[in-house]
Design a protein that fits this description.
This protein is mainly α. The chain has one domain (4-108). It is built from 3 helices and no strands. It has helices at residues 9-49, 51-56, 89-108. The relative contact order is 0.09. The site of iron/sulfur cluster (SF4) has 12 residues, from loops.
């Protein structure tokens, strides 16, 4: 239980600071989760299809640093490409749902 003597300028500052930071982190995690998931998938696809890019820490074609390049919208420029372009949150949700249905069908057959 908070008493009146606990309400100090230092404690008020800490309270506001804590709530704002907590809110901001949750807000951006939620807003950017679909990007994070696609980047993780890109890492798996590249490990399978172009492991030399991961080993060298750069794209074998454009020489951009990775994993930073994986956060860009553009698809892999390899032929055939290792991964598709980044998509928005709705499209990503649709793709995950379709993949889940496809995986269920494969498991049940
Ligand atoms: S874009 Fe393609 S070639 Fe470039 S790092 Fe990624 S996987 Fe490798």
């Amino acid at each position: 239980m908070i008493s009146i003597k606990d309400i100090t300028p230092k404690n008020i500052k800490s309270f506001v600071e804590g709530y704002i930071r907590s809110f901001m982190i949750k807000f951006f995690q939620n807003k950017l989760e679909h990007i994070h998931e696609q980047v993780e998938e890109r890492k798996l696809l590249v490990a399978e299809r172009s492991p030399e890019c991961l080993e060298q820490g750069q794209c074998k074609i454009c020489k951009c640093k990775i994993p930073e390049l994986f956060y860009a919208d553009k698809p892999c420029e390899n032929n055939p490409p290792c991964y598709p372009p980044l998509v928005n949150k709705d499209e990503w949700t649709n793709q995950k749902n379709l993949k889940s249905i496809y995986d269920d069908l494969k498991t049940n057959n």
